[in-house]
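Entry 14. Ran structure prediction on the chain below.
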Amino acid sequence: MLSCKLFSMSDVLTKRQRSYCMSCIRSNDTRAERLLASELRKLKIKFRRHIKMFGSPDFVFHKHKLAVFVDGDFWHGYNWKKRKIIPKAGYWQEKILRNMKRDLKVNRTLRDAGWRVTRFWEHKVVKQPAKCAVKIREILNDSL
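Output, structure tokens:
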């Protein structure tokens, strides 16, 4: 796996090769999502995945009007400054900033429509999927 720090160096791949590599990165059914789904099943929590609704939540709990997102650390700008992995100005920095701005809009729009929104960082789900599932269960129990 390539280190995120490569983005601060000049790219060793051609534009076409980079485009191909980036197109292979999954946007859904990621490892983190699969881990969280597995833990939710263990807790016998029913959910729907990748429902076509505004913002495309990763997990939807219709009865409780809860939308859950699992945000990739790099793609959604987790701790850029502290981790010193800010891509150079240009396409990738603009792309990630757009993602972050879109996340805020999605949160606001869904909340205005009466939904609760919860977001988990990819690294948190990968390290502690059971803890994330328990947090979802607590949120669902609070809505009863």
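Residues 1-9 have pLDDT under 50 and may be disordered. Will compare against last week's run tomorrow.
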